[in-house]
Inverse folding.
């Protein structure tokens, strides 16, 4: 009888949430095996929301996942390890120095033997410890030792969440490749209202499914080789612009800029390695065409726009070219020094903005439109303004002042600026920036298609 009374209630929850869940690709109870064979390491932090982690384990197991649970000391004050043993069907780990655990399965092994590490709830203190690379208990040691991606579901008081220290920690973790789901806005256990509530278990399940659909191994640290992209963009179409444009003054002279095309070409190459069908529209550069990429060579901004439009439709457009903002009213013949006896004046006309044109297409707009912002000061401020003005989804902003050495150099230090977040990456090889960016775009595309804010 009790079981009967229970299930109709669950059905109701599913039907209330069905639109959201369908759009997020969450399995219904009957199509339960979406995580079949996946191994998840769930780290439970010490917050009131720990009770929701119990339901999360149940939902994950329903979908066929194997869940190993690690609890912090604080978590055990809110829920008992026994409940997790019952729900996960596995023993629960909580002790960094347990001799029996080390004998059965060392903590390094535990950190590697998973497809994804999930932290739910991620309390402010746990977020801070992870961001600072502390390893003072089993949970944080595992997070430091793992080679797998981590997905954090924060839960804390709204002031703790909004505190600059927490926001700094979150930005650091994002830059390290950590993903987040939530927190949500709502009434909290402490009675206050605002952002800080842990996402509901089904939303965390959806985020786990999305994370597992893309590359889940962390890129190797600098110098140890490239991240694997594992077909993250198989079946996708990607159009990339790269290099400078050249705007003729007369048949022998032109105006242009210092762009080398290295970053744009590296992005096209990385997208191709991720399995995408890539068209690279390149201005004049001294680089070889990347392998496996369809390259269209152009000179002027207007030719670049035409080539991009011809290459559409696409899932992703990346405008990495340094497009000349102006073209010159071109003289039909070579301008002679002796013609007038004075220096000629160049009449400039504004070029079309390729990025804005593609981002604002009424029909056939690529799902993700990504621009670059080459700035010499107030990098983030200008990037945000560009994001709004051009209406693209993401701006990759970088400092191109002469002292930065970015133009023409092999390394780049970028900030990923979207409507709600800023991610700052360390100075990396342009090929590593490209690989990470492509992995990020694959994730965002996936999320956008699941109806989430990319
Ligand atoms: N861009 C473009 N077409 C243009 C100018 C720029 O597609 N005519 C794209 C670039 O490829 C880049 C982004 O817009 O992705 C920003 O380029 P940037 O030169 O930094 O910005 P501008 O719009 O030219 O603004 P400003 O020069 O005033 O900073």
């Amino acid at each position: 009888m009790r079981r009967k009374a229970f299930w109709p209630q669950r059905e109701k929850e599913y039907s209330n949430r069905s639109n959201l869940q369908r759009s997020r690709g969450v399995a219904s109870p009957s199509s339960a095996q979406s995580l079949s064979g996946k191994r998840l390491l769930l780290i439970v932090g010490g917050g009131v929301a720990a009770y929701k982690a119990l339901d999360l384990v149940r939902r994950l197991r329903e979908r066929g996942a194997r869940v190993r649970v690690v609890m912090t000391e604080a978590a055990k004050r809110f829920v008992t390890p026994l409940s997790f043993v019952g729900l996960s069907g596995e023993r629960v780990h909580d002790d960094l120095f347990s001799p029996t655990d080390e004998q059965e399965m060392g903590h390094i092994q535990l950190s590697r033997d998973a497809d994804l590490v999930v932290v739910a709830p991620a309390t402010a203190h746990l977020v801070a410890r992870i961001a600072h690379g502390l390893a003072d208990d089993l949970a944080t040691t595992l997070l430091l030792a793992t080679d797998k991606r981590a997905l954090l579901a924060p839960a804390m008081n709204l002031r703790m969440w909004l505190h600059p220290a927490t926001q700094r920690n979150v930005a650091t973790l994002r830059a390290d490749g950590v993903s987040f789901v939530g927190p949500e806005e709502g009434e909290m256990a402490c009675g206050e209202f605002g952002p800080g509530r842990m996402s509901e278990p089904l939303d965390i399940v959806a985020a786990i499914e999305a994370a597992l659909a893309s590359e889940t191994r962390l890129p190797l640290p600098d110098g140890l080789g490239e991240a694997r992209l594992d077909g993250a963009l198989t079946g996708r179409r990607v159009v990339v612009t790269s290099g400078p444009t050249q705007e003729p003054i007369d048949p022998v002279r032109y105006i242009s800029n210092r762009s080398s095309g290295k970053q744009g070409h590296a992005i096209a190459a990385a997208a191709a390695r991720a399995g995408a069908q890539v068209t690279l529209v390149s201005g004049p550069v001294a680089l070889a065409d990347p392998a496996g990429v369809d390259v269209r060579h152009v000179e002027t901004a207007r030719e670049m726009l035409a080539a991009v439009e011809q290459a559409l439709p696409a899932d992703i457009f990346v405008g990495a070219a340094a497009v000349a903002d102006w073209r010159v009213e071109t003289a039909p013949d070579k301008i002679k020094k002796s013609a007038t006896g004075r220096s000629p004046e160049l009449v400039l006309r504004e070029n079309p903005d390729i990025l804005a044109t593609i981002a604002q297409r009424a029909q056939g707009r690529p799902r993700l439109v990504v621009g670059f912002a080459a700035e010499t000061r107030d990098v983030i401020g200008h990037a945000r303004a560009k994001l709004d003005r051009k209406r693209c989804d993401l701006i990759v902003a970088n400092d191109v002042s002469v002292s930065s050495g970015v133009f023409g150099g092999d390394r780049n230090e970028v900030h990923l600026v979207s409507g709600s977040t800023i991610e700052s990456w360390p100075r990396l090889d342009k090929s590593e920036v490209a690989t990470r960016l492509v992995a990020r775009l694959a994730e965002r595309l996936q999320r956008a298609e699941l109806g989430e804010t990319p």
Remarks:
- The chain has 16 helices and 21 strands.
- The two ends are 44 Å apart (CA to CA).
- The longest strand covers residues 368-375.
